[in-house]
DNA sequence: ATAGGGTTAG
């Protein structure tokens, strides 16, 4: 950027700001005194040489020529030096210098010079203001802009077309589109620039509709649209995917023979890409004769936006092959989402390296795009270190960082980042909440969910469909299905995601019949189901044991709805068949399915073999899983638990060693409970809380009432030699039980007790919870990552399958 | 001598 230049005096480099306006005045005063002493008589400046010029005239003309040439060549030190030598420079001279400074990025200096001009009593003219107003835009200074605007009014230049156009542009670029509107409305004469400025101002403020309206009004006012209008209005069409309007503008472009204008070509390629017609972009691109970097960037972006990462990349490669074209930051920004989409971490990293070598940093947009790519490629540490080294961050980069944490399954981290962001006095927006709500969904209790919901409403995002959909899921996962239903009810225009989410919400709470009913409600409302609808529906059927219904829906997917089952659907079906009892059928299903089984698919079969206590199958399946994911902790733990149940302690030990040698650790089981209004986190055998002794006392009383744990829960399958080992595996003080007791202690009689767990509840605790619910006559709700068990009167809604 | 434009992150 511009280095500091001194415009308030020629001796010392400094700039005059509002704060030190007084010293500036003094300096300026001195200069005037000096100049006044030096030359007594000043001649009026003439525009050309004439034979009878005086010496003074000649030298002043010479100075003016030198000044102009210095300004033209960007030598401002010299230009300013000459300027200081001129006695009483004319308004024209001042204007030339202000223009030169503005055009070369010396915005502050241009503004300072204008203030000095004003102070020295040199009258500004209609030319002065467009230059200095442009400097305000460059400096992003609304304060200066408003001050200069008031000078415009006082001096009566607010009727000048050029000055008004400059003001319209200034206010729209400084984010005050209403001010632009006001000035525009008061203009008696408007030209194409005025209209175009309003149109592009609306586009910049994201107001697609106003910009289209303005474009229409412009034509109604019989101002013919030009290339500037076309480029702006295509931007408006891109904004909300107004394909029809875009095509209409394209027709006008052809009629006006503007279709070989390089910038219009770029805008058209971009517009078709953003409206989802990438074939049109491609066709246009192939006809472009002179391919600029911007055109390449547009087509790379168009493929990226239209889910064609491979073609996006091949464009990039072709671009590299063509001569004299250097990818710039925008190229990388447009390409990085394709890296993310393909999980092409190596390519993403090489983009990063390329950017470093080309000296593109710091660049907040590029850095955020890299952060996002790293997050989506599952490299949270790289995403985070990107953020840490960023010189400038903004709401978008914070949001991307939060998303990276959530995508990596680090919900706690995401919540911390969210807190940090708020303490930096950044105001969360709609996307912040859409990103952070899944973190609440995984970690929060209903009360915390209500708090974030209250914040959302307070900030005015309560009716956003994206947020409402995220809220439905959040409440359901936190255990409050009623709140989820309420949010759903309040959505005026429910979209397919709203329906998918509420269907799954009831599924995870064990109300499969409601899920099924909601699906038919959805059909009745004329909402077309998509693949995710069937994931919700099949998951609900499988969780709730509705085997026949699930199978029917699965077969109707293709026949009735023309949706090809994806890997998630097959996963649901394995779950479903697994619990039907016919485990061979489930295995056969996997062998026959047309997609390559993933570790998750095998994981479903592993769960089923555990339930049916089929250790041979479990071992076989575990082998498959570990060959796909050697670090699948869940698989080790499940197998180890099965060995423990069979008292095969040597196998238990060997799994423990195997995990240890790989540095794998069991997830520490913990339970969450609201205790006296606050979330309390409890681990197995946890004694760390102030409330611990009370909770343990309560548990002891209950244990005694329901019998010793080994009798109640051990189911007599353990013989004395196993007792010692068994004690080490005792579920007596598992977090779930401690949490249930804490809940019983801190809530009124008759209300349900709600516990959240990070791992599935063990069989012993499940049995205990059933008995406790009967004994205390309380409803106990225990949520694990998959399902909410609802215990009452000694029974659980899972019907003992989970 | 004065004003407007293409490709840019969540």
UniProtKB/TrEMBL annotation:
The keyword Secreted does not apply. It comes from the Eukaryota. GO terms for biological process: RNA modification. Keywords: Repeat. PPR repeats lie at residues 90-124, 191-225, 394-428, 495-529. Residues 732-802 form the DYW domain. GO terms for molecular function: RNA binding; zinc ion binding. PANTHER family: PENTATRICOPEPTIDE REPEAT-CONTAINING PROTEIN (PTHR47926:SF452). Belongs to the PPR family. PCMP-H subfamily. This is Pentatricopeptide repeat-containing protein At4g35130, chloroplastic-like. It comes from Coffea arabica. The gene is LOC113706544.
């Amino acid at each position: 950027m511009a280095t500091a230049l001194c415009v308030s005096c020629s001796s010392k480099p400094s700039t005059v700001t509002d704060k030190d306006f007084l010293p500036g005045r003094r300096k300026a005063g001195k200069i005037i005194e000096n100049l006044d002493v030096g030359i007594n008589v000043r001649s009026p400046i003439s525009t050309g040489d004439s034979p009878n010029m005086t010496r003074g005239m000649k030298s002043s003309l010479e100075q003016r020529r030198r000044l102009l040439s210095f300004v033209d060549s960007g030598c401002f030190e010299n230009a300013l030096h000459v300027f200081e030598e001129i006695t009483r420079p004319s308004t024209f001279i001042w204007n030339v210098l202000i223009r030169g400074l503005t055009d070369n990025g010396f915005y502050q200096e241009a503004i300072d010079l204008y203030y000095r001009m004003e102070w020295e009593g040199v009258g500004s003219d209609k030319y002065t203001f467009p230059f200095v107003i442009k400097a305000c835009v460059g400096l992003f200074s609304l304060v200066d802009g408003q001050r200069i605007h008031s000078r415009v009014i006082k001096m009566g230049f607010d009727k000048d077309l050029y000055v008004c156009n400059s003001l319209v542009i200034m206010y729209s670029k400084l984010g005050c589109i209403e001010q632009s509107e006001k000035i525009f409305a008061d203009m008696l004469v408007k030209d194409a620039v005025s209209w175009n400025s309003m149109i592009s101002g609306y586009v910049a403020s994201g107001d697609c509709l106003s910009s289209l309206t303005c474009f229409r009004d412009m034509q109604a006012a019989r101002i013919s649209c030009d290339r500037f209008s076309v480029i702006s209005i295509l931007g408006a069409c891109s904004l909300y995917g107004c394909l029809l309007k875009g095509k209409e503008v394209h027709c006008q472009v052809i009629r006006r023979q503007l279709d070989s204008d390089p910038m219009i070509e770029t805008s058209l390629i971009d517009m078709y890409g953003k409206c989802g017609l990438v074939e049109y972009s491609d066709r246009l691109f192939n006809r472009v004769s002179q391919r600029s970097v911007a055109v390449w960037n547009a087509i790379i972006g168009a493929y990226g936006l239209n889910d064609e990462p491979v073609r996006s990349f091949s464009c990039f490669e072709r671009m590299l092959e063509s001569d004299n074209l250097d990818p710039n930051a925008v190229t990388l920004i447009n390409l990085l989402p394709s890296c993310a989409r393909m999980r092409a971490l190596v390519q993403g990293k090489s983009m990063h390296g390329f950017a470093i070598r080309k000296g593109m940093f710091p660049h907040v947009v590029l850095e955020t795009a890299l952060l996002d790519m790293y997050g989506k490629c599952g490299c949270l540490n790289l995403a985070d270190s990107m953020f840490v080294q960023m010189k400038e961050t903004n709401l978008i980069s914070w949001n991307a960082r939060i998303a990276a944490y959530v995508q990596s399954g680090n919900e706690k981290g995401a919540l911390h980042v969210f807190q940090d962001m708020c303490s930096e006095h950044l105001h969360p927006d709609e996307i912040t909440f859409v990103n952070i709500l899944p973190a609440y969904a995984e970690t929060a209790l209903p009360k915390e969910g209500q708090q974030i919901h209250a914040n959302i409403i307070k900030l005015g995002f309560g009716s956003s469909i994206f947020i409402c959909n995220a809220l439905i899921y959040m409440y359901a996962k936190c255990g409050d299905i009623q709140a989820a239903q309420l949010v759903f009810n309040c959505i005026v225009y429910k979209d397919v995601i709203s329906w998918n989410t509420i269907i799954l919400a009831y599924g995870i709470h064990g109300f499969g019949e409601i899920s099924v009913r909601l699906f038919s409600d959805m059909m009745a409302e004329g909402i077309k189901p998509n693949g995710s609808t069937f994931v919700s529906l099949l998951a609900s059927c499988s969780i709730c044991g509705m085997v026949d219904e699930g199978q029917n829906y699965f077969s109707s997917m293709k026949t009735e709805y023309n949706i090809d089952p994806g890997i998630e659907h097959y996963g649901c079906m394995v779950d479903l068949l697994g619990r039907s009892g016919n485990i061979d059928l489930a295995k056969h299903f996997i062998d026959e399915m047309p997609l390559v089984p993933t570790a998750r698919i095998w994981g479903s079969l592993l769960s089923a073999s555990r339930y049916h206590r089929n250790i041979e199958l479990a071992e076989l399946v575990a082998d498959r899983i570990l060959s796909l994911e050697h670090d699948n902790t869940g698989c080790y733990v499940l197998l180890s638990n099965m060995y423990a149940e069979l008292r095969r302690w040597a196998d238990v030990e060997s799994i423990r060693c195997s995990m240890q040698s790989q540095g794998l650790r069991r997830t520490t089981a913990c339970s969450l409970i609201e205790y006296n209004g606050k979330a309390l986190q409890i681990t197995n055998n946890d004694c760390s809380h102030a409330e611990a002794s009370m909770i343990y006392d309560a548990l002891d009383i209950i244990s005694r009432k329901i019998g010793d744990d080994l009798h109640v829960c051990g189911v007599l399958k353990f013989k004395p030699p196993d007792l010692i080992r068994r004690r080490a595996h005792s579920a007596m003080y598992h977090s779930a039980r401690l949490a249930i007791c804490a809940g019983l202690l801190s809530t009124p009689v008759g209300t349900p007790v709600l516990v959240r767990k990070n791992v599935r509840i063990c069989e012993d605790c499940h049995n205990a919870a059933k008995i406790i619910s009967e004994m205390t006559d309380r409803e106990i709700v225990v949520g694990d990552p998959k399902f909410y068990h609802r215990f009452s009167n000694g029974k659980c809604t899972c019907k003992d399958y989970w």
